[in-house]
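Page header: ASSEMBLY MODEL / two components / 406 residues total.
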Amino acid sequence: MAASVRTIAVIGFDALQLYSITELIRRENDYVILDTLDEQCDIDSIDAFIITPSEFVSRFDLFLTKRTKTLILADKVSSVGMDMSVSVVAINSRLSEIEEAISVLLNSAECGAISNSELSARERDVLKEIASGKIIKEVADTLNISVNTVLTHRKNISAKLGIRSVSGLSVYALMNGIIK
Amino acid sequence: MTLFNINSKLCDIIFYDSSVISVINRFGINLGVGDYTVAEICRSHNLDENFLIVIINTFLNEKYFPERLLKTYSITKIVNYLEKTNSYYEQFQLPNIERHFNLLIMKSNADDGNLHLLKRFFDEMKNELLFRINFDRQEWFPQLLQLGNTTLDEDIELDNIPESAHPIEDKLNDLKSFFIIHLKGKYDVNLCQAVVSSIIALEKDLKQNNRIRERILLPFERALTE
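Prediction written out in full:
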């Protein structure tokens, strides 16, 4: 299924960090990347944000009211799961973890645009583990990703399939040969 | 949002949204309502017309919840309504889904086993709902009635009500999604439609009445026991 090019805003980082993040994004897909939000910028056309905590706080009303998919790369993560549309990852996490979080963010931005998307390979991995009866922490350990990332995958899987309960996900996995 | 009043004709309310039939049934009102108003029908059935119209408006409008008004009714009245609602699920809505589901399985020659999986999932949801109904009947409702035939003081602090999880609603939503989005193979379309319609009817009923449980009964219980 062809998707239109998505726009990702990467705001508040220094030049080196910005370069690394945009490289990670470009590895995923062809995105338009904005590194500033000026007055000419149409905020409504932005599909996802990757921002620093200070930018998030200064534009709190924008992110919470628009509920645009947002990833905060913070120096330190004290709590997670504050809002359905916001994920938080420590900037000093392993590169693979940041990559995974960006991948999830971009995937969920696509998910909002294409409601009937197929599950990604990673989402199928997560679904397989959840449908097998593992709790979120066990899934994170098995796949070597953070609990927060598993939760975001879980949220995206539910949004794509329209299935919320764990036993419903297990039935889906059985129906589609993901588990036996 | 359309709100009715006690001078509205009951037939007009049913024409507006036929799902209200299940609500008037549990008050002992059957179809064949003539062109009488809610007030007239309630007089002939010895019902509280104001309570019935509040329940009807709450049921029909997802965005309408007359919390203050509902709190003016005695807890006995609200518990009795929810007990009738539970009985309606138990005696009519669950068996209705089950009957159509069994017929659908019987009349479908699909050998991929999907329908049997979905039926097992339905059975799981049904057992959870029946367990909740039994708990209401044996424990929760008697406890609430023991607290007295009081009304809830409007000034009682109702903040900090925890967000409740809704595992039964989630499963009904999932079941609906399985039929609407993920169903494969050839099935009897009429029976499939009957199953989906009856699932949607139960899902709406549970969702609307859960609001009364969570925003009226739970705060009432907390306020009187803490």
